[in-house]
Amino acid sequence: MAGKVKVLLSKLGLDVHNRGLITVATELRDAGMEVIYIGNSLPQEIIKTAIQEGVDVVGVSSLGGAHLTLGKELIEEAKKEGVKDQMVFVIGGVFPPADAKRLEEIGFEGTFLPGATREQIVSSILKMASAKKKKPA
Amino acid sequence: MTGKRIRTKEVLQAKMAERETTPLYNPEALKKLRTEFDRWRQSTVREEDRENWFEIPRTVLGSGIPREMLYSPLSNPDLDYLRDLGYSGQEPYTRGIHPNMYRGKAFTMRQLTGFGGPEETNQRIKFMLAHGGTGVNVLFDLPTIQMYDSDDPISKGQVGMSGVAIDSVEDMDIVFKDIPLDEVTVSLVTHYPSNTAILFPMYLALAERRGIPWTKLRGSVQNDITLEEVVRSGPEYIPPRDCFRIQCDNIEFIREHVPQWNFVTYNGYNLREFGTSAVTEMAVAVANAIETVEEMLRRGRDVDWVAERIAFFWSPASDFFEEVARLRAVRRLWYKIMKHRFEAKHHRSLWMRCHVQTSGVSLRMEEPLNNIIRAAYQALSAVFGGAQSLHVDSYDEAYSVPTEEAALLSLRTQQIIQEETGVTDVVDPLGGSFYVEALTNEIEKRILDEVDEIEKMGGYVTAIEKGWLHQKIANYFCEERRRIEEGVIKIVGYNVHQAPLALPAINVFRYPEGVEERQRERLAKLRRQRDNQKVEAALTALENGCKSGKNVMGHAVECAKVGCTEGEMFRVFKRVFGQWKPPSLW
Fold this sequence. Notes:
Oligomer: heterodimer
CATH topology of the domain at 81-485 in chain B: TIM Barrel
CATH architecture of chain A: 3-Layer(aba) Sandwich
Number of strands of chain B: 10
Radius of gyration of chain B: 24 Å
CATH class of chain A: Alpha Beta
Order of helices and strands of chain A: EHEHEHEHEH
CATH class of the domain at 81-485 in chain B: Alpha Beta
Structural class of chain A: alpha/beta
Strand content of chain B: 5-15%
């Protein structure tokens, strides 16, 4: 794959728990990806930054219960801005497993629950990013 | 800050050196034990065990303190019973702050409650009290914790999540409907100094509305800079110095006007859960408490006036004996600090009183029923350690906020410890154990060493500004993650003993619908009906108070009374203090 995979990571909305996402940020960086961590942001800002930075992957984290409401808004915003098919969207955090399915229906390509290992996260993000990069724009 | 900072460790070392000691073990006996120990070690202990005499238990949130295979009087040869332990309710309080401990008063069963709107939370509080809960513990939703109103665009989709939505005194009124504020003790989990300065005034305004004098209110707030500036992940921060000032303003105001209220709960819990060891958790809380007392002395207050109401909040994690020893260790250390460094006179000032909550990060999504066992052991360690009040996490919290059934099971866990096991009949039952006493000594020493590290750096607020703590946390949790992945830290059902078959799914809590709309409507009504001139005047007075350096909380109470919202008050803080960019965590 040409060039480094560029990843934007953000806490979704006002959720205060960032231990997991910072761990992921470190792991993706150590795996050779370029990571931009923007802290707490709302869907519109996240998509805006993702476009400005031209990232391959957008990863968001939610442990506070707002994964469905704000997750949906994020995907809708991506569609509105026409980047849903250019970028990979993944979400992680604490939510019931049934909601992981809902999030995939909404449009997230990867969902990571507590217990996801470094290996699972890194390899699936690389794989998804590489598949998308190969697709003709 | 001017002049050289006093180092607590130096003061204590000097004071300790002055004291006369009466060792419990006589030298002859110790000599005999030493000879026999050496003989036993060579003749009876396997070579392999001799070589690995020290082992480090690798547990979730552990301290990494090496442990001997067997402890004996030789592990603590200088033990001076009265100096190091004493009797319960007696200096140095190692064995507990009260002579009769749980015979006199059972630990308060204070289960956290908060989700949805104030109506739903009020129902859950009543449910817990009806089933034998003995205290109220209210948790706020994400926008409330972060100080935004429910109708702020930033709150969209998050109202009533992870806690209860509170926008104004009107919501506070509903949360506590039918709950006698002068009878029940109430813990308001206002994590930050800033939101304590906003939310507690709403509680005070409510008491006034109900004709209850503030002097009758009993309970606690957290009010901890560590939570606001280090543990939190949020969109906007005020600078640490201003945050610390608000922490101290809150303390001063509450002490003066609400004398039975615990104005600060130094929160080691959330810091540790974020990612620090058993030792750092306590060192940071103690350093913060020391700096607060120093500030109060600078403000001309008497040490006892402040210290009598200081409380702590700890997280008991998985290493059972470490948790027991640690509570005993910090109780003794806090006593020494108050007695010898600050020369407090009143016995209450010497007490390390604490609430504990079982560890949330130790809960696993895999095989969730295992979490019931984890929480029960953690709770038991807290009781052996002599905690004053307790919250037991629910097994389903690895998924969401607990269901009513799971919350009840947590309460039952506490009740079973209290009613069925007999452990509360004897004070400090593990005191005198060679192991527990040696570990207590080691942990106390390590906490003080880390306090010293912070003081040498220029104090706690400086340690935050410099990013020392942020970096320490990030290093710790990345390392812990690596150890779990490598199987060094073992977690049943996750990296060892995984279930071969998928287990049946558990019931998971679902948030009630329509909360955001209800909050928006109530806010709209409030903004229509309140006297907006009074609101403006109160907010201006708050702003002037912030600028003048005088105590902010009195102004915030006026704001709460006339119906100012949380978001309106936080905007004043941001305007006056400006914004701070916290150090990067990675």
